[in-house]
Amino acid sequence: MPVDFYSDYTMTIGGKAESSSSTFEAYNPATEAAIARVPDASREQLDAAVAAAKAAFPAWSARPVEERQALVAKIGEVLQAHAGELSRLLTLEQGKAKAGADWEIGGSIAWCGGIATQSLPTQIIEQDEQRTVEMRHVPLGVVGAITPWNFPILLAIWKVAPALVAGNTMVLKPSPYTPLCTLKIGELLRDVLPAGVLNVVSGGDNLGAWMTGHKDIAKISFTGSTATGRKVMESAASNLKRITLELGGNDPAIVLPDVDPKQMAKELFWAAFQNSAQFCCAAKRLYIHDDIYDVLRDEMVEYAKTVKVGDGSQQGVQLGPIQNKMQFEKVKDLLADAKTNGLNAVLGGEVSDGTGYFVPVTIYDNPPEDSRVVKEEAFGPVLPLLRFTNIDDVVARANDTDMGLAASVWSADADLAKSIGERIEAGVIWINEIHTFSPHAAFGGHKQSGIGVENSLDGLAEYTNTQTVVTRRSPAVTIA
Ligand code: NAD
What we know:
This protein is of the alpha/beta class. It has 2 domains: 11-247 and 445-468, Aldehyde Dehydrogenase, Chain A, domain 1, CATH 3.40.605; 252-431, Aldehyde Dehydrogenase, Chain A, domain 2, CATH 3.40.309. Helices cover 38% and strands 21% of the residues. The protein is built from 15 helices and 20 strands. The strands form 5 sheets. Strands 14-15-16-13-12-17-18 form a 7-stranded mixed sheet, with helices on both faces. Strands 9-8-7-10-11-19 form a 6-stranded mixed sheet, sandwiched between helices. Strand 1 and strand 2 form a beta hairpin. Helix 2 packs antiparallel against helix 4, helix 2 (65-81) runs antiparallel to helix 5 and helix 3 packs across helix 4. The longest helix has 20 residues, at 43-62. The radius of gyration is 24 Å and the shape is globular. It starts with 10 loop residues before the first strand and ends in an 8-residue tail after the last strand. The structure holds nicotinamide-adenine-dinucleotide (NAD). Nicotinamide-adenine-dinucleotide (NAD) binds at residues 146-150, 155, 173, 175-176, 205, 208-209, 212, 223-225, 228, 231-232, 246-249, 280, 377, 379, 405, 445, 450.
């Protein structure tokens, strides 16, 4: 069944297509044209999706884990079979260029395969002839998954695959800015998964809030902004839902003086600007040692001038637009603030009038540490370059933030770089590489970048409760 871009999109509830009396439009951020109508779920429809997931839970959780793993692997095969169409749809709704869309789909396929090899075996803590003490993991029930608009497919799969392998059923809600691929994947999986195991609903932010307050949802797995993460945590308290929160970042990258600045410019450019910097763990503050600062700055600017920004569906385009108008206005406000405060933009800094939410690659030359472009997560192609001379000083500056998602350190001396990296308060530390992820390595933020982790067996365990079972072979003699 080929993916039809312009069809009416339907939700998936209890294995069936579901439309809605109320709808909203999805837009192409490169052209600002409406591209599809999308159901705006009512509260009753959310209740129906949760009820379907709840009804599917006993049979799904009772299946042997091998069968659940096999069906998650099958999800990967379905994505593979539709990779080309999904990639084009992703560019259309999200704006990213083809290479980025292909990377996201490829990652999602790999994730299904990787997570499908995972399980959480029962541990025997004590065992003798009389008695065993075992610790096992049991699924939670219905998981609510809420995703953002920057990597709509990959970040959904990061939740769907482990939640299902662990034995849960799910109600998944994409961002209202990028609902199409997620709805389409729900549709493609209707005949693959048992009815009710994966329900996909679309709607506005209120739908997310209804989910976090829903009494029959046992856990919320949320990826999005720190501000919304706080609301999720508050609302989840109503029935003590489990939560995993993957939130914002303001990641430092520290470049030591022993690297070749000419060779590093391209890699550091992409570390910062991949996905038009709409990337939770993009390098967002680039600390460069004074010895190589000028050369690296100039090389990065020269390289940046060769990068083509435009409609992601066009040949040769490497960076697409900002995904939506709300974020576009936020980034423009940040640029206006930088201008008002006299920051030195060595590239970009001005948004031209025209169609599409395009922001040029913007690089600021050593702005004050307390300027907004340094303190705030831009979530757009805006990068401050910052000079340093002293390691203790740069570590303190790198840590002077409420965020703690990831960090990178770059040096010819990997041991030195690692010792510096380990002083950074963040969930992932990359040395001489960046943005390499694995289904078997934990990803999650420290401080206000999140709670809990995704991926790895630790991430899988977050979709379970721990249960200790103590068995005595015959009843213990009670001493009266
Ligand atoms: P957002 O917080 O505005 O929205 C995220 C999701 O939450 C959307 O589906 C939205 O509809 C929903 N939502 C909004 N209000 C809600 C509420 N009150 N209750 C429940 N759900 C609600 O975030 P965004 O703008 O879509 O995404 C950008 C942010 O996501 C950035 O800060 C970025 O750093 C972060 N992010 C983090 C990671 C990570 O893994 N740590 C990955 C990608 C993006």
